[in-house]
Design a protein that fits this description.
By secondary structure, the protein is α/β, with parallel strands linked by helices. It is built from 11 helices and 12 strands.
Length: 342
């Protein structure tokens, strides 16, 4: 196995909670708690979860826009958390945001927007113009788009411009924060296809953040599932889709729309989770998911589950996976899977 390009080790973020007449600190909001994962050069790590699960907070910490409360972010062995923010956001890591329209300056032409990172690298003016044309070609847009303005472009075209701008500094890692959620389904597929082509041709590495697991199935190498700031399951995409172990993952996959009988046959037969994710300001005790989990039993509201490894590269945090779960009042996970399969 190749050495990881990026390692996230015990990453946590707590925001101070202020209140009262004088705005004093009266606690904290745990947005991310002890998250660890790694990925090798050229891989795609999918980070999935509902809104409020901590996905974007992790992205902001990797970018250097938010400072972690604890943990380390190693890029090629260099700890980014020990660097000034400007260096942590250096050319090694770039980000493509959810709404391409809001990330483009409406008063700048497309050529001017793409030129900004090129000019920051002290590239000669003539080379900047050639660089803009080359980047437009890389994202499959004609060179004359450089004279257009954001309001003249479709959503998919704007996202291609955002990708081109991220590529301008020749990054090692690109964080894709819900890059297709604002686009039509047909446009989503084209953007994913483009990102795959760029990954193969340029040796890029992606962290792909999304609430849509169906997009990850054919794009991500590994998938991590977040719930209320904790990584509750992580493993190779194929294993996680074919043998999900955490009730939350199984519910998310059960809700994924399918278009064929074959896809329907391999979906988990699990109850769809109802209700809202709890507030990070008032997290429940024990396993954070127990308030919505249809399989919760006595231990779930008392202790936070440890990570149980299903094999060498796939784990889940669930008391149902404990060797002594049956003696504690729970059905063994394999029995539950057979019952859910019907």
């Amino acid at each position: 196995m190749s050495a990881p390009l990026i390692e996230i080790i015990g990453l946590s973020k707590a925001f101070p909670l202020r209140g009262g007449l004088f705005g004093g600190i009266r606690g904290d909001v745990k947005a991310v708690s002890d998250v660890s994962f790694s990925l090798a050069k050229g891989d795609v790590f999918g980070l999935a979860g509902e809104s409020g699960s901590g996905k974007s907070t992790i992205a902001r910490m990797i970018m250097g826009l938010t400072h972690p409360s604890a943990g380390a972010i190693l890029l090629d062995g260099l700890d980014l958390t020990g660097l000034p923010l400007a260096l942590a956001r250096s050319k090694a890591v770039q980000m493509v945001f959810q709404n391409p329209g809001s990330s483009l300056n409406p008063r700048r032409s497309i050529g001017q927007s793409i030129a900004v990172p090129l000019e920051a690298r002290k590239i000669a003016r003539a080379d900047v113009e050639r660089g803009v044309a080359r980047l437009l070609d890389m994202v499959q847009l004609p060179a004359d788009f450089s004279t257009r303005y954001p309001h003249e472009l479709s959503g998919g075209q704007k996202q291609r411009i955002a990708i081109a701008r991220a590529l301008a500094v020749e990054p090692q890692l690109i964080i894709l924060d819900e890059p297709t959620s604002a686009l039509d389904v047909s446009v989503q597929a084209k953007i994913i296809e483009l990102l795959n082509e760029l990954r193969r041709s340029l040796g890029l590495t992606y962290i792909f953040i999304s609430h849509d697991l169906s997009l990850m199935r054919n794009f991500a190498s590994r998938v991590g599932v977040l719930y209320l700031g904790r990584l509750v399951e992580e493993g190779p995409t194929r294993k996680l889709f074919e043998a999900p172990a955490h009730p939350y993952t199984r519910s998310l996959l059960a809700a994924v729309p399918v278009i064929s009988a074959e896809e329907e046959a391999i979906k988990p037969k699990a109850p769809i989770v109802e209700g809202e994710i709890p507030s990070p300001m008032n997290q429940p005790p024990g396993c954070a998911f127990h308030t919505r989990c249809p399989l919760a039993f006595g231990l779930c509201d008392q202790q936070n589950p440890e990570a149980y490894w299903l094999d060498g590269d796939h784990f889940a945090r669930c008391h149902l996976l404990a060797p002594d779960a049956a003696s504690l009042g729970a059905k063994p996970i394999e029995t539950l899977k057979r019952e859910n399969a019907g």
